[in-house]
Amino acid sequence: MSEPQPTFVSEAEFLALPESLDRVELIDGEVVVSPAPSYGHQEVARRLLLALGRWAEDHAGPVVIGQAPLDVRFGDGRILQPDVFVLFGRLALDHEGPIEQTPALCVEIVSRDRVYDRVTKRAVYAAAGVRECWTVHPAGLVERWTGANLMDREEVRGVLASALLPGFAMPLAKLFAA
Q: How confident is the model at residue 23, as a pLDDT?
């Protein structure tokens, strides 16, 4: 018995799909649909989003803090929805379609498909020029990926901070509190 062949779609076909709150992403012609996130995933994302939002309010320059589901183009045929992202610049409230600017920071709350979150998406981000990626494991671990091709890994302990976000500091105890 032969294996079914994947069906590839163009970016135009992908963008013509109906609007959805599902996590639907496009990587090189393949449509990836992720299952609904767990409560823990969403709670960690919410806490991080609020902390980054407070930081952005005090940041001197224009900054956008975004969250899934929101399409971001990371190259031709590569439209992903980072759980949380930081983009330096402005975005109009009436903006339609995928965001074209590359975020400086992308955050993935690790789900059941760890390889997709930690490896596949990080490789797409690196190829697009994302400067930093955090993979957050709801069980209490944060990995910060930096450097060429986002290959330098640091396990964060105590406080989550970044040179990209001067003044941002979030104690991991708050991020992962029961």
A: 83
Q: 99 is in which domain, residue-wise?
A: 37-175
Count of structural domains within the chain: 1
**pTM exceeds cut of 0.90:** yes
DSSP 124: H
Asked whether residue 94 is domain-assigned, the answer is yes
- Beta strand 169-171 with 159-161 is antiparallel
Domain-embedded: residue 161 = yes
Query: What CATH number has the domain bearing residue 84?
Result: 3.90.1570.10
Kindly tell me the number of DSSP H helices and DSSP E strands found in the chain: 5, 12
Q: How far is CA 104 from CA 4, 18, 75, 107, 113, in A?
A: 38, 29, 15, 10, 24
Among candidate residues 107, 79, 116, the one with its CA nearest the CA of residue 164: 107
CA–CA distances in Å: residue 46 to residues 89, 103, 136, 174:
22, 19, 12, 12
Look at residue 1 in the predicted model and tell me its pLDDT: 60
